[in-house]
Amino acid sequence: MTASPHRHELYTVEQVRALDRRAIDDLGVPGYELMQRAAAAALVCLRQHWPQARRIAVYGGPGNNGGDGFLLAALAREAGIHAEVFAWGESRGDDAVRARREFEHGGGTVHAWREGIELPLVDVHVDALYGTGLQRALTADIAGLVQCIHATGAPVLALDVPSGVNADTGDVPGVAVQADVTVTFIALKRGLFTGLAPGYVGTVQWEPLGLTDTLWHGFEPDAGLMQPWTLPPRPRQSHKGSNGHVLAIGGDHGTAGAVRLCGEAALRGGAGLVSVATRADHLTALNSARPELMAHDVHGPQALEALLPRATVLAVGPGLGQGAWGHALWLTALDSHLPLVLDADGLNLLAREPRELGDGAVITPHPGEAARLLGCDTATIGRDRYAAVRELARRYRAVAVLKGAGSLVADPHGRVAVCPWGNPGMATGGMGDLLTGIIAALIAQGCGAWQAACLGVSLHARAGDVAARHGGERGLIATDLLDPLRRLLNGRES
């Protein structure tokens, strides 16, 4: 990704259009010149990723995205790369029409796409069908073309956004291009990094097209990509009391594993002390497996209240259940007004009995839990994860983490951070319990709710990536993250 102070900023489609218009009107860069710069940047990207490519096929739509494709094909021909172009419909708009004519006047032939045409054998396919404006599913005929492209097995370069992916939300309402590389222009589109989109964009490469920093002055991004960072080294005089006390609450009958994972992650996340409030029948197992956890038999609210004065932060929900025992502990925890991280059944109980949580609270729902919290279905959450996470934070007055590919963190004021790490191997039981413990540990060590949520999500995802690099994604389990988590937290892993 191009080095720039704006390389971590994410924008809505509407904002990108405004930036494009500002480049034309305020910076005096004509629209056609922007198209030429995009094509040149795309050719550089193609040669970087596929230096041996000698034959490409470009699929151009009727708009400016298609114009980018025509000009790329023209530049490729000049560079000695054989380029075949297939057009979907007639070009519309002065710049797109001009780009198509330039390709044709240079000796290129534009083939009209129709069903049944056999695609050529090429080294790379280039998707220039639709840009950021598409908000609906691809029509059946274009979907058929996309499936034919995939069937060839050749890699795909997408210009600006893979066709069929919603660049604003990350939703994919139907068939979409699965790109190996997406080169996106002027500004990073927020939808490329969350939801279903990460499965379609491949490697995202941003090209600002040589536009000066004045383009972005006074222009607030909608969200930002998280950056790798960790806590500073501890002072030499630190002791266990300096690093906070996490009280993990959960583990109803048969679910000791969930609260143990949460507690152990809090230890590996750097908390000075970690207590576990759980059922009596779990004490022997917890003490045997992880003696550093201080496990307590908590049979009801009074027993929990005795533990609260020593706690810095509460981690509520892993294995808690929604029965009378779990509900009573949940109420006691929320009424304590201590900082807390709420997950799993702690969230399901919140959906049943909504209340504002306030400063110091973090909620960590997956899409199903988020749907229950917002009174909708998971499809609604998936259609616009940005809107969902902002509404969660606003409604419950807490920092909200919406888990999934491209996890999002929002605060009640609308600020959003996006996690660019993580992998499919992390879609296994217990990962959420770890995240709860990590965030709680960071709060215990002095982080605010926003800082703890962002750092916790990033450490959790990066630890998953380190674990996957060493052993692969399939078969990855939650405890595989604990060792790389510790190394990342101490700056000994990248």
Automatic annotation (TrEMBL):
Metal-binding listed as a keyword: yes
Record note on cofactor: Binds 1 potassium ion per subunit.
Binding site for (6S)-NADPHX: 64-68, 131-137, 160, 258, 319, 366, 433
UniProt cofactor(s): Mg(2+); K(+)
Domain YjeF C-terminal: 223-492
Keywords: ATP-binding, Isomerase, Kinase, Lyase, Metal-binding, Multifunctional enzyme, NAD, NADP, Nucleotide-binding, Potassium, Transferase
Origin: domain of life: Bacteria
Gene3D superfamilies recorded: 3.40.1190.20, YjeF N-terminal domain (3.40.50.10260)
Pfam families the UniProt entry points to: Carb_kinase, YjeF_N
Gene Ontology biological process: metabolite repair; nicotinamide nucleotide metabolic process
Domain named YjeF N-terminal: residues: 16-217
Residues binding AMP: K403, G404, A405, G406, S407, G432
Catalytic activity: (6S)-NADPHX + ADP = AMP + phosphate + NADPH + H(+); (6R)-NADPHX = (6S)-NADPHX; (6R)-NADHX = (6S)-NADHX; (6S)-NADHX + ADP = AMP + phosphate + NADH + H(+)
GO molecular function: ADP-dependent NAD(P)H-hydrate dehydratase activity; ATP binding; kinase activity; metal ion binding; NAD(P)HX epimerase activity
Entry binding sites for K(+): N65, D127, S163
EC code: 4.2.1.136, 5.1.99.6
CDD domains from the UniProt entry: YXKO-related (cd01171)
Subunit architecture: Homotetramer.
Family membership: In the C-terminal section; belongs to the NnrD/CARKD family.
Primary role: Bifunctional enzyme that catalyzes the epimerization of the S- and R-forms of NAD(P)HX and the dehydration of the S-form of NAD(P)HX at the expense of ADP, which is converted to AMP. This allows the repair of both epimers of NAD(P)HX, a damaged form of NAD(P)H that is a result of enzymatic or heat-dependent hydration. Catalyzes the epimerization of the S- and R-forms of NAD(P)HX, a damaged form of NAD(P)H that is a result of enzymatic or heat-dependent hydration. This is a prerequisite for the S-specific NAD(P)H-hydrate dehydratase to allow the repair of both epimers of NAD(P)HX.
Name of this protein: Bifunctional NAD(P)H-hydrate repair enzyme
Organism whose genome encodes this protein: Dyella japonica A8
